[in-house]
Amino acid sequence: MKTSDAITSLAALAQETRLGVFRLLVRHAPKGLPVGVIARRLGLPGPTLSFHLNVLAAADLIRPKKNGRSISYSANPETINELTSFLMENCCCGRGGCRPRE
Amino acid sequence: MKTSDAITSLAALAQETRLGVFRLLVRHAPKGLPVGVIARRLGLPGPTLSFHLNVLAAADLIRPKKNGRSISYSANPETINELTSFLMENCCCGRGGCRPRE
DNA sequence: TTCATATTTCCAGAATAATGGAAATATAAT
DNA sequence: ATTATATTTCCATTATTCTGGAAATATGAA
User: Which of A40, A49, A102, B50 has the maximal Cβ count within 10 Å?
Assistant: First the structure.
């Protein structure tokens, strides 16, 4: 992962609305949810949600899929994995963080 | 980890200079580096670096330690671990991401 | 106490990002 | 074709964040 991609992903997540959207989609992975459902659940105006979905999608944190008249977005967990590795690259204590994961 | 703490950490890392500082300190964990050395290595003016170090420290991503006349900062890998868990919480596929780490 | 070094605070200008109403587009159902 | 629904684009306003010079503070050395 390139530095610029890492920044794009981190910046995408570093915003309350987008973090809420992303985590909602993580809970609904791998199927995803239609834009309208996300908007209703989080109480967001269409243009605002659309703007934030684009930011998340540009970071490849979520992916759109047409489904009839609506569009469902689903979380892409792979990007988070890459991001984590990038952040801890060349750490004294090896990959995956400084404490073993249980 | 609370949502507001996650946003603080993500926003701290979502900036080129700060990401560079953090990764430099990860490579030098757990000893850390003095402010002056970081400034020289990354070619940053004092006030700019000081500002960014404060943002990273406020997120508990790095920690200062006085050492004579200088101050060394070192990376705190624990925060990254918590952040990763938070982002993937309640994922369909369990903790630690949707693919097993090797 | 005076001096040199390390780091921070102050602050104002410059740059970037978020918000949501109105209008536009796309698509499927009737 | 017309209508209803879903989503996006446009865009101006507001809010937030970044930058670095000048001055201030802190600490150790001479």
Answer: A49
**Residues in chain B whose Cβ is within 8 Å of chain A:** 3, 6-7, 10-11, 13-16, 19-20, 22-23, 26-30, 75, 77-78, 80-81, 84, 87-93, 95-99, 101
Domain extent listing, chain B: 3-87
Nearest CA in chain A to B20: A3
| Chain centre distance of CA A81 | 11
d(CA A95, CA A85) in angstroms, rounded, equals: 7
Structure tokens at A3: 């530095």
| SS3 of chain B: helix, strand, coil, percent, to 5 | 55, 15, 30
Q: Which fold has domain A3-87?
A: Arc Repressor Mutant, subunit A (1.10.10)
Question: Is pLDDT at B90 greater than 90 in this prediction?
Answer: no
Taking only the tens place, the pLDDT of each residue in B33-81 is 999 999 999 999 999 999 999 999 999 999 999 988 899 999 999 999 9
Residues of chain A with Cβ-Cβ distance to B22 below 8 Å are: 87
